[in-house]
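Dear support,

I submitted the protein below through the web form. The confirmation email said the job was done, but the results page showed an empty box. After a refresh the structure appeared. I'm attaching both so you can tell me whether what I see now is the final result or a partial one.
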Amino acid sequence: MLKRKYIILLFVCSLTMALSAQPKVTLPAMNTAFLLNVGVSDQRLPSLGVTVARIGKIGYYANFMIGLDNIHLNYDYRAAEDGSLIGGEYAGLIPFYSGKRSVNRLSATLGGMCRMVIPLHVYVGAGYGYRSETRELLNMKWVEAASSLEHSGLVEAGLIGQIESVTLQAGYTLFIGRDNRLFHEARVGIGYTFNK
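What the results page shows now:
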């Protein structure tokens, strides 16, 4: 019995010495970047947003964008590809529009990045997007256009570079909506990186 206690004690002591002899593991240094983004597409007004990133050899980011067009989320009717109304008492009729138009866009993405060459990083991400287009009728009701994507998945990729603490971003975002409709947006950004 006493022999077993000494063997266990010897084992614990040797294990403790072996663990303390291991080199200290240090995590790579990561810096935090804040960027203001502008999304450019075929829409009249751009979308604006913000990106927060943790930059290192390997990093991650989060982005949120919202369109600046006249925001109007609800609608009374939907339009078909040929422009006629779907459903309701006016189904099949071609409506008359007042000229007011609204395009709603927003997106939220998360992704990863890795350093290619100092100070250039490539990023890839995926997330949620929403894009709808509505137009006002002469009777002040709203119609959702057939080109609306509504709830969408989205993917994006691009580059983030640094010039000292100034951070620049250029990327491409693809909305993938209902019926596999696509909406493309180019994104540029400028910001500041807080170096440790």
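Response: this is the final, complete result; the empty box was a page-load delay. The chain has one domain: 27-194.
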